[in-house]
TrEMBL record:
Protein name (database record): Glycosyl hydrolase family 3 N-terminal domain protein
Transmembrane segments: 958-979
Keywords assigned: Hydrolase, Membrane, Signal, Transmembrane, Transmembrane helix
Pfam families with a match to the protein in the record: Fn3-like, Glyco_hydro_3, Glyco_hydro_3_C
Recorded family membership: Belongs to the glycosyl hydrolase 3 family.
Residue ranges annotated for the Fibronectin type III-like domain, each copy included: 442-520
InterPro entries from the UniProt entry: Cellulose_deg_GH3 (IPR050288), Fn3-like (IPR026891), GH (IPR017853), Glyco_hydro_3_C (IPR002772), Glyco_hydro_3_C_sf (IPR036881), Glyco_hydro_3_N (IPR001764), Glyco_hydro_3_N_sf (IPR036962), Ig-like_fold (IPR013783)
One of the GO BP terms on file: carbohydrate metabolic process
Domain of life, source organism: Bacteria
A GO MF label: hydrolase activity, hydrolyzing O-glycosyl compounds
Originating species: Subdoligranulum variabile DSM 15176
Residues annotated as signal peptide: 1-22
Length: 991
């Protein structure tokens, strides 16, 4: 009997194979080309091969100092622990609760104890799956940990019920809407399940309070006075009720003799409100004996915490943020979160429109220069002196721990304090003596005060009461031992920016004070003492007597408007660049802003968010614009694609202005320049015409991380604030060197980091990848880290320059700030990192300065970064895969060289200008900067001037083509079989 033809089977197989073929072809020939760069980076696919030429050149330009990967990794594991042990700050240590006694038996409480914050989320995230736990770290020091309690907190049931809520790595692409939650286990459950184990492990109850932070979402602060409720009902940085109940429960057990002491670890880069440490403030005595701030500990930093708790290392870290009893007492919080212009609807600006850059959202830096301690100490001094209409300001009930504070297990004394002056600097000398009973290190901090003059008041210049201007760290001093410390303070540290009068940096006439102090508050009290103030003479407005013997006064006879009016780095004149970010000066102002001023604290203090309104001129400035081609014929078309035998390796060691660059650039085609400039997502592309290899660039505020691209990661160091809190340049320079070593070992030439934005408030989601609230310590530590990283041939991209200090509406938010504030606070870190650290590159922010996106703000990209600071390398955008407001042509003109983009969006834009000589010239100059950066990097290792590069098809593309071919053949086979089946069926019917 003849078999029935399988028409249905072959119809189905034909349909399936046809759909799969069509899908594969669309993916391969339509979608994949749009994301080719991303796929190449994620799969580590080669897009070229090197054809070696005959040469005797030594091509090992950058070499490792380690004999093996194992040696490097072991050294870095110890280094990370050392950074933590030197950066953690001891805040409270009553009853000598720390260090723990040898062989102590302890209980660890709170979910944070088994789930430490090693780092933040997003682009800074690093794999810490193999990181030691706090229990591991304590046991390594001979401390025994309550296993029953540990197992309970670690159990799957408790972990699932009470896991810390954190934002996704990149929530909602580039504009997170994640919520943060504490979600601590209730004390009743903790006690019921574990009470029988407490007495045996009662030498100490160690409580770990952890808070998360990450890219894309700022932390909720509750009603901050702005009229916007950012949490529903929660301030994420105050203790939750469950945490308070935990402390109360432990206090009761301590009173009953179950626990000898209660120790709190602050495992966060976002400053918790510390009212719970002071019974007079919170109204409850939780019986806390000791408190140690540890920040985000990094991959092996828990070992450093263990050493500190056990006394193997003496704490020597100092806070790099002001810690408040109530974070809302910080004036910056009032205007921290972005808000819409009051009449957005009239102009059609949609809410959360990331593609067009949130044109209708703004933030105002109304606090001006008075960030953190600059506010608290200055208002305190004016309150003490009865100046500035300071009102009733109680420092003791406002600030829990000042900037620069850090206790020790020993004590130190200062003597032989002196300051000498020369033409360009002051030299501070002081003898530090360990006056206690155990060995330890001491951070020596130097602060200065500049005069607040009538000229300042008339010209709207603000002055902080004290500013950090120098520091050093002693070696380990044995009890009774001393060290003479010398600190040099450049006179440029005393300058201030006058944006209304001289319109440049000035040095005021009057008295300047220098003091050595343990933190900002001690510094201002020392200066007050030198002026003759005491608690008695001020009716106790002055809370503590200062030490006038630790101050030195210098008088500047006359106002100086010329010494600092010229850039030391470039010789260019310095004048106002950022007036169009000041609502009080720009023509399209959305309204006037009253900046916080010490001339009248009460009248200028932020009492609510500024309600600014859109207007026609501002709306026009915020529209997505694009170069109109009007300059096309203003220059001659550059030579493109010329014959030549120069390679990029030929330019190794050449100056930027070497005439041979022109000949090299002539060989490059328009298409090569276009791809190099516009598809710079985690790489710089190969350029075959000049033998330029592709480079791999990667994220790295805490160390090399490939969290977003799927590659291998390296050592995750502590959060940047812990690095800064070490006050140890040499140590962080070594961290930088080792990050560079990791990049060298793993084939990376560029690093998206360090992060250089500011801790404007404790609520910024990315505080973990920024150093501090103070630009001096941030800039000095950053410069040291940058020097270390770049010593291994790795070019850094300082991110995100600038004013990207929050995540709220970060995609294009309008940032309003005055010029003095921008220069003295928010650009100072870049200044030090570029000028002193030699940083090659920067990454711009998503935000706007006023109405102009950072990347196309010529005053920032060209006039400031290049014209004033002398930056040598390239400026890259933040991720720009689908953001039309980050326009290619306009930004290129402004001084942006490369786009952090995996798609052809910007490639397509520049293609429209292939015949525009002006844009092509800008592309050529951008290409020059990119190549100059790369030729001075480790990307040239192994390359000689005799080598050639040949472009090849990456393996994944060959595989995709093969898949399409196989599916197409299968489809044809199915069609043939279907036709045969249909014909057979027809034949059988005919019979």
């Amino acid at each position: 009997m003849q078999k029935k033809p399988k028409v249905a089977l072959w119809s189905g197989l034909t349909a399936v194979s046809a759909v799969l073929t069509a899908a594969a072809m669309v993916a391969t020939f339509v979608v994949a080309p749009m994301y080719e760069t991303t796929i190449n980076v994620a799969t580590n696919a080669s897009t070229y091969r090197i054809i070696k030429g005959e040469t005797n050149e030594d091509t090992n330009y950058f070499t490792s100092t380690f004999a093996s990967d194992d040696e490097r990794e072991a050294y870095e594991a110890e280094l990370c622990a050392t950074v933590e042990s030197e950066g953690a700050a001891l805040l409270k240590n009553d009853n000598a609760a720390l260090p723990l006694a040898s062989g102590a038996k302890v209980s660890l409480f709170a979910r944070g104890s088994v789930d430490l914050m090693y780092g933040g989320t997003g682009s800074g995230a690093v794999d810490t799956s193999s990181a030691p736990t706090l229990k591991d770290a304590l046991e390594a020091q001979g401390i025994t940990v309550n296993q029953t309690l540990w197992d309970w907190y670690s159990s799957e049931d408790i972990a699932s019920k009470y896991s810390r809520v954190t934002p996704d790595a990149i929530s909602d692409a580039l504009g997170a809407n994640s919520q943060y939650g504490v979600n601590e286990a209730p004390w009743s459950e903790v006690e019921t399940a574990n009470a029988s184990s407490f007495a045996e492990y009662g030498d100490a109850a160690i409580v770990v309070f952890s808070r998360s932070g990450g890219e894309g979402a700022d932390l909720p602060s509750g009603d901050n006075g702005s009229g916007v409720d950012w949490t529903g009902d929660t301030n994420y940085l105050e203790l939750s009720q469950e945490e308070k109940d935990l402390l109360s429960g432990l206090k009761a057990l301590k009173d009953a003799g179950t626990f000898k002491s209660i120790i709190v670890l602050l495992n966060t880069s976002n400053a918790l409100e510390l009212d719970f440490l002071n019974p007079e403030i919170c109204g409850v005595d939780y019986g806390i004996d000791s408190c140690l701030w540890v920040g985000d500990v990094g991959q092996t930093g828990a070992n450093g915490v263990g050493m500190l708790l056990a006394g193997a290392v003496n704490p020597s870290g100092s806070l790099v943020d002001t810690y408040w009893y109530d974070n809302l007492a910080n004036p910056a919080v009032t205007n921290f979160y972005s808000r819409p212009y009051t009449n957005n609807a009239d102009y059609g600006f949609a809410a959360d429109d990331k593609d067009n850059g949130n044109q209708g959202y703004y933030v105002v830096y109304q606090e001006g220069i008075y960030l953190g301690y600059r506010y608290a100490e200055t208002r305190y001094e004016d309150y003490v002196m009865g100046t500035g209409n300071a009102g009733t300001f109680n420092y003791g009930t406002t600030v829990a721990y000042p900037f620069g504070y850090g206790d020790s297990y020993t004590t130190f004394g200062y003597s032989n304090y002196s300051v000498t002056e020369d033409a360009d600097a002051f030299t501070v000398n002081v003898t530090v003596t360990n006056t206690g009973s155990v060995a330890g290190k001491k951070t020596v901090q130097v602060y200065f005060q500049s005069p607040y003059t009538d000229y300042d008041k008339q010209n709207g210049i603000e002055k902080a009461s004290v500013e950090l201007c120098g520091f050093e760290k002693t070696a380990i001093l044995e009890p009774g031992a001393s060290e003479n410390v010398t600190i040099t303070v450049d006179k440029s540290e005393l300058r201030t920016y006058d944006s209304n009068g001289a319109k440049t940096y000035i040095l005021d006439a009057g008295d300047y004070y220098f003091t050595v102090a343990d933190g900002s508050h001690e510094a201002v009290n020392n200066v007050l003492a030198a002026k003759g103030y005491t608690p008695e003479t001020t009716e106790n407005r002055m809370d503590t007597a200062g030490d006038a013997t630790l101050t030195w006064k210098w008088n500047n006879a006359a106002l100086d408007t010329t010494t600092f009016a010229t850039s030391e780095a470039t010789g260019n004149a310095i004048t106002n660049l950022f007036d169009d970010a000041d609502p009080n000066k720009v023509s399209y102002s959305p309204g006037s802003v009253t900046w916080l001023s010490r001339s009248d604290w009460t009248a200028t203090y932020p009492t609510g968010s500024f309600d600014l309104a859109m207007n026609d001129e501002l709306a026009a400035a915020l529209e997505n614009t694009q170069y109109d081609g009007s300059q096309a014929d203003s220059v001659e078309m550059p030579t493109l694609g010329a014959e030549g035998d120069l390679t990029l390796a030929s330019m190794i060691g050449a100056d930027y202005d070497d005439p041979q660059w022109d000949a090299l650039l002539d060989q490059i085609t328009f298409d090569e320049m276009n791809l190099l400039i516009t598809q710079g997502f985690h790489n710089t592309k190969a350029v075959a015409s000049i033998g330029k290899t592709a480079t791999k660039d990667e994220n790295g505020p805490q160390g090399l991380t490939a969290a977003l691209t799927g590659g291998a990661s390296a050592m995750c160091y502590t959060s940047e604030d812990v690095m800064a809190a070490t006050f140890n340049r040499d140590l962080i320079n070594d961290v930088g060197r080792c990050i560079g070593e990791d990049c060298l070992a793993m084939g990376y030439s560029g690093l998206y980091g360090p992060g250089i934005n500011m801790h404007r408030t404790p609520y910024s989601g990315r505080n973990f990848e920024y150093y501090a609230e103070d630009p001096f310590i941030a800039g000095e530590i950053c410069a040291s880290e940058v020097q270390g990283i770049q010593s291994m041939g790795v070019y850094v991209y300082l991110k995100h320059v600038a004013l990207n200090d929050s995540e709220s509406s970060r995609m294009g938010v309008n940032t309003w700030v005055n010029e003095q504030t921008a220069r003295e606070v928010y650009l100072e870190v870049a200044d030090k990192a570029v000028v002193d650290g030699g940083a090659w590159c920067t990454m711009s922010g998503f935000n706007r300065w006023g109405a102009t996106w950072c990347g196309k703000y010529e005053n920032l990209q060209t006039d400031y970064l290049r014209g004033e600071l002398g930056m040598r390398g390239m400026s890259i955008t933040d991720y720009s895969g689908g953001s039309h407001y980050m326009d290619s042509a306009d930004a290129l003109i402004a001084g942006t060289e490369i786009w952090d983009s995996p798609t052809p969006l910007h490639t397509g834009i520049l293609e429209n200008y292939e015949n525009d000589a002006y844009i092509v010239t800008q592309m050529r100059e951008a290409t020059h900067k990119i190549l100059y950066t790369v030729v001075n990097s480790n990307a040239m290792n192994g390359w000689s001037s005799a080598d050639r590069l040949e472009v090849i098809t990456p393996w994944w593309k060959l595989a995709a083509w093969s898949l399409c071919g196989v599916l197409a053949v299968l489809t044809v086979i199915c069609v043939v079989m279907l036709v045969k089946a249909v014909n057979k069926k027809k034949t059988m019917k005919a019979e």
